[in-house]
Amino acid sequence: MTAKTIEEKEMSTATAYKNIRTATEGAIAIVTLNRPQVLNALNTELMTELADAMQAFDHDEHVRVIILTGGERAFAAGADIKEMAEESTVSMMLRDNLAIWDRIRFIKKPIIAAVSGFALGGGCELLMMCDIVVASETAQFGQPEINIGVIPGAGGTQRLTRVLGKYRSMEIILTGRPFSAKEAFDLGLVNKVVPVEVLLDEARAMATEIAKKSPLAVRLAKEAVLKTYEMTLNEGLQFERKSFYMLFDSKDQKEGMRAFMEKRPANFTGR
């Protein structure tokens, strides 16, 4: 399904934004980066709108999964260089625009990135903040900041290394070279590579499957997986065990296990 079809499906009640579009389809929210004239370059205004929209969906009890996407030509080609080219160390620290990204990092609901075209620099860092990545065959990834005299600043050195390891990340970050969707899949950076014309359909199918699960279990499962990057194995195992026990006070746990024993689909309510 194309970006145009998404636009046609947007709800009339969706909040009006300048740099993004938002839509809901049942339990799925879709956020589309919308600065096509600059290949969805990530400026402060766009990132603020994106954080606002993502947090609104995170607090909407009707939404269970969020899809983040861009256009066919570019998911996001990077940060808006014009916005920062003449900044100083002091002005960058005082503005601290990268702090906006933390608002997205703390979204509790699962985020699926549907990536087509360029996903470079900040665009690659943005998709690495998502939980699942579906890429089109035309997607192109990279951290080319070294080519303009800086380094990744929104998590690229940290998240890429956690996925690819030291040596591959060093090569990609120090050379700034782009890499294809196939290589990204082989390296473990994306979950699936599909033809561009079915990209959003594939993301929707995955979102629909996740949306059927218990929202409480999904939230705690996401949190437990992310804790892997912050804890020792023993600490992580303890966190997982406590989260597992906590779910036994939920109606979803009772419904899920009864449905299993009664051989019927579960009806999860998030309670």
Largest sheet: 6 strands, mixed
What are the segments in which pLDDT stays under 50 over at least 5 consecutive residues? 1-13
Succession of helices and strands? HEEHEEHHHEEHEEHHEHEHHHH
| Main CATH class of the largest domain | Alpha Beta
The CATH homologous superfamily of the largest domain is named: 2-enoyl-CoA Hydratase, Chain A, domain 1
Widest β-sheet, arrangement of strands:
1-2-3-5-7-10
CATH topology of the largest domain: 2-enoyl-CoA Hydratase, Chain A, domain 1
Distance between the first and last residues' Cα? 33 Å
Instruction: Tell me the number of structural domains.
Output: 2
Enumerate how many helices there are, as a single number. Answer: 13
Shape assignment? globular
As a whole number of angstroms, the C-alpha radius of gyration is 19 Å
Descriptive overview:
A hairpin with a 2-residue loop joins strand 1 (20-25) and strand 2. Helix 11 (215-227) runs antiparallel to helix 12 (233-246). The protein has 2 domains: 3-211, 2-enoyl-CoA Hydratase, Chain A, domain 1 (Alpha-Beta Complex); 215-261, Lyase 2-enoyl-coa Hydratase, Chain  A, domain 2. By secondary structure, the chain is of the alpha/beta class. The two termini are 33 Å apart. It contains 13 helices and 10 strands.
Give the arrangement of secondary structure elements.
Layout: H1 3-9, E1 20-25, E2 28-33, H2 44-58, E3 65-69, E4 74-76, H3 81-84, H4 89-95, H5 99-105, E5 111-115, E6 118-120, H6 122-127, E7 132-136, E8 140-142, H7 156-164, H8 166-175, E9 179-180, H9 181-187, E10 192-194, H10 199-211, H11 215-227, H12 233-246, H13 251-261
Parallel strand pairs: 2-3, 3-5, 4-6, 5-7, 6-8, 7-10
Antiparallel strand pairs: 1-2, 8-9
Helix pairs in contact: 2-5, 7-8, 11-12
